[in-house]
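Predict both folds.
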Amino acid sequence: MKTVLYSDDINLLSHWQKSLENLCDVYDDLDSLYEIKESIIIINFSACLPECSYVLAELNKNNNRVLILHRTPDFEVAKKMIHLGAFGYGNALMRDHFIVSAVNTIRDGMVWLYPEYTSQLIMEIRPKEENQDALLVSLTSREKEVALLLKDGLTYKDIAIKLDITPRTVKAHAQNTYAKLHVKDRVALALLLK
């Protein structure tokens, strides 16, 4: 999948190109985006106003995956964009590694949100009545600890501090947990366990 950038802000385009090491195409006309097929399209929020729902619908018709980046990100806007079919939402000025992570996650067919928004979304999930112990029986005791903390919306860094281990170790336990429970990510784990 190729990556395409569109923005009404030349500074954002420059930042995104640098983050992606210029391995992307840049478009300067919104109507020309509607002809693109099977690509990851990064677009800033203000460039798709006033009708983001129309823009997303048109871009999604051609099996594109859209990442909306916003100069002033907002959790409620994030939920709305994901609901409308965006594959990701984040800060337009986020660090390079977040942009690369977002593109890679979306390329893999998953939804990407800024980590703080993922935690907020997890905390909004209503608890299930099912017995968590039965679901977690295949996990080691440490994986179970990590899974329960992830379910509560803690970040890898927060869990690392709480358990006195490195964030990298938390990530390894999380990945093992996802594989054993047949889920793709933190949100899917939270949905399973809440």
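Second protein follows, with its predicted structure tokens after the sequence.
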Amino acid sequence: MTYHHGDLRRTLLDAAAASIAQSGVAKLSLRALAKDANVSNAAPTYHFGDKAGLLTALAAEGFELLAKAVSLPSHQGLVDMGVSYVDFALTHPSHFLVMFQPSLLRDGDDDLNLAQQHARAALEAGVRDARDHGPDDQSSSRAAWSIVHGFATLVLSGAITVADPLAEARRVAAHLDIDQLE
């Protein structure tokens, strides 16, 4: 086995996401990821240090992907942004899972903190824009985020099943009466 690999960091992040989706985060093993990537057991440690480092990198990537998803110029308002949030969660379930479990992550990681700030700013900007550029209101942002996050979490956990999760997400997000969030 060798440390030389085309883009081992990317390969390990993709493999970790696939492993989490299949078996859950508790069964994620750096040794198994190294074996699957056909590299030495030490190779993942070189890139991430440990399992928490790998999960932190996956969460940071997830927050950046989320920021991009909810910042799409095609959004026509809060409902579109909410649907994009749910779409992100359903498209990247492993990222979504680890992003919101701080006990799995390295506290104080600069890349993670920056990515979280980007995602939070994108979500707050979407709510502010829906309010016609009114003043920032963290309660409004949190209410909107809670609704779509809760729906995404319920779908991913299997607590609710719907034939078309994005169509249902649109109906759920339509309940966000931004005037009532003030």
